[in-house]
Recover the amino acids of this structure.
């Protein structure tokens, strides 16, 4: 009986790994190729990412006194960090990326309690806008990959377009006709089938797989000792703030699914776990990590709401991360195949943001202005990256990324409009009474725009 239960937990753990695997390997592939890493370096990046995903998942699943939210959450590398990491690496070098990630992680750990107390500053209008901007800012990367990659010699060739649109079509067909768990693996299956077809076309080189070893241990500071530059650090702190906003929505969803209410202390523990995951990512030259939303649907689908399943998933990820040959298989995926899959993923991020915005009261002019200014600036900087080219480099690195340039106005404008509204409402309410015995208390949730 115990063996059967263990096998069930293990099989459900594998399902969680498969559900997040495509997202987990895409981030190191996108960043590594943009920074022109060698095949060996790229394989290391993928393998260490899988290993750190597993450790980060363990940190979050455990509910300790100071660390871990204790919900069945799976952590993976954050898409929010893709373009900032590429920008930092291009301008300051790879060591500066990891110095900024370590600094941002320590910042989150130290200020976790503060973030848990201001969570009301992140209502649906902010979260939905930020998530939408993330997807919009990432879509150009997916489109470039569809054509074969930004620096490809055969950019936009018929072969690349056929591969990318074939993968896209296959994913859409699975979503239309498949059911249950197979449907949730549509993106991963699309990547596998697309790579197999690319291999038949002679577009896949297996040399990196043959050369990769069967086992390795994680090596701290693989790309050199970290450097700490003020511009990249501020950029990554903003990235960390956006990650926390994202994860807060996932924590709330898991709380409802698992019938496990969470409070400020729980949120602070969850934020600390993510901050520590950042630090680990910086030390082992991996990535910033956040709670993956795609695994929430699997929790709901499987009806298994205990953390032992995600602990098993974490163990599987750690095991895979110790085998470079597994990671090397990810590095042979052609850019065109990645493009067909990432366009779907990034488009789904946009769709998720729009869905969140359905809960916003757009009868209020302030909410319209928050979305309008944030999306315009975020999309504008993504389309015209030279907008801030004349600014000093330390400032330019912060505002030249569409995700950050769009997210900051969403957060700040919400504070500007809603806090000002709250003060006016409090003042007008207090004035309605004559003396202390006639003050009428009006409880208003200005953060969500409802009374």
């Amino acid at each position: 009986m115990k063996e059967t239960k263990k096998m069930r937990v293990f099989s459900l753990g594998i399902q969680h790994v498969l559900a997040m695997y495509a997202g987990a390997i895409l981030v190191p592939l996108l960043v590594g190729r943009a920074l022109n890493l060698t095949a060996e370096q790229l394989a290391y990046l993928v393998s260490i990412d899988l290993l750190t995903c597993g450790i980060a998942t363990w940190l979050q699943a455990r509910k300790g006194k100071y660390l871990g939210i204790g919900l069945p959450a799976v952590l993976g590398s954050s898409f929010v960090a893709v373009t900032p990491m590429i920008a930092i690496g291009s301008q300051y070098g790879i060591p500066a990326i990891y110095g900024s990630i370590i600094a941002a992680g320590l910042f989150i750990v130290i200020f976790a309690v503060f973030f848990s107390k201001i969570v009301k500053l992140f209502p649906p209008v902010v979260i939905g806008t930020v998530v939408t901007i993330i997807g919009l800012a990432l879509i150009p990367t997916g489109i470039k990959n569809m054509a074969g990659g930004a620096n490809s010699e055969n950019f936009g060739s018929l072969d690349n377009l056929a591969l990318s649109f074939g993968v896209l079509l296959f994913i859409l067909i699975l979503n239309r006709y498949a059911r249950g768990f197979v449907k949730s693996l549509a993106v991963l299956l699309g990547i596998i089938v697309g790579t197999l077809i690319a291999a038949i076309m002679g577009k896949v080189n297996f040399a990196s797989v043959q050369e990769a070893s069967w086992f390795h241990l994680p090596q701290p500071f693989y790309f050199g000792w970290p450097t700490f530059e003020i511009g990249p650090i501020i950029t990554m702190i903003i990235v960390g703030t956006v990650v926390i906003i994202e994860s807060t929505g996932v924590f709330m969803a898991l709380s409802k699914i698992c019938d496990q209410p969470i409070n400020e202390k729980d949120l602070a523990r969850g934020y600390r776990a993510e901050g520590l995951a950042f630090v680990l990512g910086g030390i082992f030259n991996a990535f910033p990590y956040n709670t993956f939303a795609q695994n929430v649907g699997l929790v709901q689908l499987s009806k298994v709401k205990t953390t032992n399943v995600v602990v098993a998933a974490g163990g599987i990820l750690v095991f895979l991360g110790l085998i470079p040959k597994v990671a090397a298989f990810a590095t042979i995926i052609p850019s065109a195949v990645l493009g067909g899959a990432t366009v779907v993923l990034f488009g789904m991020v946009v769709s998720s943001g729009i869905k969140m915005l359905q809960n916003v009261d757009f009868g209020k002019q302030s909410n319209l202005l928050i979305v309008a200014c944030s999306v315009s600036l975020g999309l504008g900087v993504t389309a015209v990256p030279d907008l801030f080219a004349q600014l000093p480099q330390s400032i330019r690195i912060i505002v030249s990324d569409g995700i950050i340039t769009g997210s900051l106005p969403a957060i700040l404008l919400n504070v500007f409009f809603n806090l000002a509204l709250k003060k006016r409402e409090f003042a007008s309410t207090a004035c309605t009474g004559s003396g202390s015995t006639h003050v009428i208390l009006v409880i208003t949730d200005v953060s969500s725009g409802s009374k």
